Amino acid sequence: MAIRAFLLFLILLVSSYTTFALYEDQVGLMDWHQQYIGKVKKAVFQTQKAGRKRVVVSTEENVIAALDLRHGEIFWRQVLGVNDVIDEIDIALGKYVVTLSSGGSILRAWNLPDGQMVWESFLLGSNPSRSLLLTPANFGADKDNVILVYGNGYLHAVSNIDGDILWKKDLAQKGIDVHHLVHPEESGMLYALGVGDRFQFEAYVISVGNGELLKHSSMEFPGGFSGDLSLSTSDKAVALDSSGSILVTISFVGGEIKFQEVHISDLLQGFSGVAVLLPSKLAGMVAVKINRSLLFVKVKDEGTLEVVDTVPHVEAVSDSLSFAEGQTAFGLIQQDGGKIHLTVKSSDDWKTHFLKESIEVDQQRGLVHKVYINNYIRTDRTYGFRALIVMEDHSLLLLQQGAVVWYREDGLASIIDVTTSELPVEKAGVSVAKVEHSLFEWLKGHLLKLKATLMLATPDDVAVVQRMRLQSAEKSKMTRDHNGFRKLLIVLTRAGKLFALHTGDGRIVWSRLLNAFRKSGTCESPRGLKLHQWQVPHHHALDENPSVLVVGTCGHNSDAPGILSFVDAYRGEELNYLAPVHSITQVIPMPFTDSTEQRLHLIIDAEGYGHLYPRTLEAVGIFQKELGNIYWYSVDVNNNRLKGHVVKKNCKPEIADGYCFESSDLWSVIFPSDSEKVIATSTRKLSEVVHTQAKVVAEDVLYKYISKNVLFLATVTPKAIGDIGSVIPEDSWLFVYLVDTITGRVLHRMSHHGCQGPVHAVFSENWVVYHYFNLRAHRYEMSVVEIYDQSRADNKDVLKLVLGKHNLSAPVSSYSRPEVMTKSQSYFFTHTVKTIAVTSTAKGITSKQLLIGTIGDQVLALDKRFLDPRRTLNPTQAEKEEGIIPLTDSLPIMPQAYVTHALKVEGLKSIITIPAKLESTTLVFAHGVDLFFTRLAPSKTYDSLTEDFNYALLLLTIVALVIAIFVTWIWSERKELQEKWR
């Protein structure tokens, strides 16, 4: 009885502890979340009032954010839609952030302290045009402050109090391309300046109060204009003529237009090359870029031009900044390798330098692209200046007092592709549990953990324990672990920079701005495309580091020259690069490696030729053995064509070298353009592992059709190409196909009447799940199609299997006509979907989960069992035992199923899953403007103890049981002795 009572007490103790425990302390242990904003397009400082000093920025990722000038942290952030491109930003009345977006169609005001939207106005127009925003400080004491907006050919005056449109003026019918809106101080007039055509300068004088056209002036310049107008003062502008060799000063005082021209060769002796007028707004002067030098030209009152100085190697120039007593200054950046030279000059007196500093920066940030300056008052009451700098790799730096105050790696907001690399193996002699703290800190940590276990810890102690857990050395070690949780995420950004992120805590291990992806004379507009694993040595080859292949092109055309870069995955060194090479339309990783474990890749160019890499004789020898078995396919969305190809022979010697191969067309599927339009495709991952081909179904066996050569393709009728709701259900059809890419045979075709795209699909094993919109039901739907191999259905004869005559042992060929069977089902789904992925594990044993990126920028995990086509309203007992869920018309969404919890991955673009060595666990990486990483166990951690398992409580339980056994043994011995003495 004593033993039973004691065990009951222990069970109650354990159960009470588990019910009290919270999962909040696990945040950050298995996941991490990083916030970014993207490459800054424009910045406005707000430092005049007391309180937090901030800078408001807009970025190329359509983000508006307020950053702390002290640390660079985000005060608040708003992420607009993909198509809602931010054109202009400004600050009005010292309390509103005003943004103009969508080509001048949407004007919004945001509260400066917290970023909440105050009002929104939709500005309609007729013709697309450039977008201009003007927020004058005051139009007069008796007038309301207004915001002037030009976009879509219309000039609007909007109240900055509530966003009401006060008046609008149609300038599109006048045929003018407005370049500037000018409001002279203490004036009720507005100048709209632009070019009517290449030869005509137009000036409109408009009343700010009611939008009345007061005067229109027009004057033709015989030489024509090129580029934009540069506004030097409120009544003078400067332009380049069409030849780029003459500067034209345009005066428009009171609407009267006057031209004065001067040859650049007269201003600069020995002028040659191409002149470009910079868009920077400099008070009383303009900047002309000639090669790598800047020519600063002052515009005098009478309209004549005077060269102030020629400064070499200028990378960026800021706009003019007005500060105390009407003084104006601007900043310019010169760069010499890793050293930045910042100079702040006076706009009135060129010889006056307010600031001149040199700062060392990381050379991997590249060149300076933009600079914004701001002034502040030092402790000695003199004026100081700070500079916000946008670098080539999209990072953001704040320079102040000769040092980098803070920096932000905002290039990570524009990730193009992701791959992974294993960390190095821990070598002999290096302790796995390397002690990184002193003995006192070690003892203190264990004491705090013991207090937390016994529920005696204070909130401060709990916070310290949580911080220690997040900073644990085991989690962030630079060697691989036996569970495969620690890896390197190699990411390629739009700036052409590679980052290696540690999966343990998300820190940047190394970064490299690739030389091959920097602008040069041979490649003016490089862009990255894909990442591929190039060399993956086995763990015993410790002298070899893994490497990755970065693929890109020198333009957006299909025939643009290609770029290949090879990078060491451990050190981040660019081992080699080839640029420019042949065009690149497709990269096919081959299932072969050479003696150095470099993976063979076949790169297809625009003409259909295949180029083999690595370019070695050994690689060619390996490839030649499989020459007749190399198949690939291409999808031409523009021409509605799906084609299959085979690589047959070497190219002719006069065409290319011995690493080039010709391919021939095997088949083609052409979809009639008047009835169908290709909108989506999906295939299986090449690295996906399928544990078993058989699936037990209601005391029977089905065999999965797991060919890696199956393509999912979706088409819609031409009328259904537009946005959702742009077509009536009767005119909209969605068709889905499963196509064998070796033979071109259509294995399955299904139609959905009254449905429309966009279609998001994921293909895994023998099933595909796709998401679309049902116009009839006004709801989203998700459908599943499973495909089974009927040719292997008769597999129950054991004798045939023993004799080797079983059809499971027969070779599989895509050219043997498959006998397939499909099962499908559709369900309603309440969310708009951005992307879909599926979990992947090392052996493929663990059940699958769909990872759905929702319109709310969160990741939802949905068990694949909910998308089983065999679900029925009343499943049989056998089906229930099999795990079949009763049929419902819609898929359930449980709040606990959100992988991202309460976090959002703003601007979510893609979800990547990576198998860990532990079969139960998959690694998930989601990226957009933000980054998010976590670990998932779709079938729970059935093969390991969880990290939050309470070892201390287990130890106490074991000790208590041992003591209880010992005590009860003594009691039983005494009782037995007493009974013997009776």
TrEMBL record:
Pfam families registered for this protein in UniProt: Beta-prop_EMC1_N, EMC1_C
InterPro entries membership: Beta-prop_EMC1_1st, EMC1, EMC1_C, PQQ_b-propeller_rpt, Quinoprotein_ADH-like_sf, WD40/YVTN_repeat-like_dom_sf
Domain ER membrane protein complex subunit 1 C-terminal: 764-981
Membrane topology, record value: Single-pass type I membrane protein
Location relative to the cell: Endoplasmic reticulum membrane
Record note on quaternary structure: Component of the ER membrane protein complex (EMC).
Name listed for the protein in its UniProt record: ER membrane protein complex subunit 1
Biological source species: Nicotiana attenuata (Coyote tobacco)
Taxonomic placement: Eukaryota, Viridiplantae, Streptophyta, Embryophyta, Tracheophyta
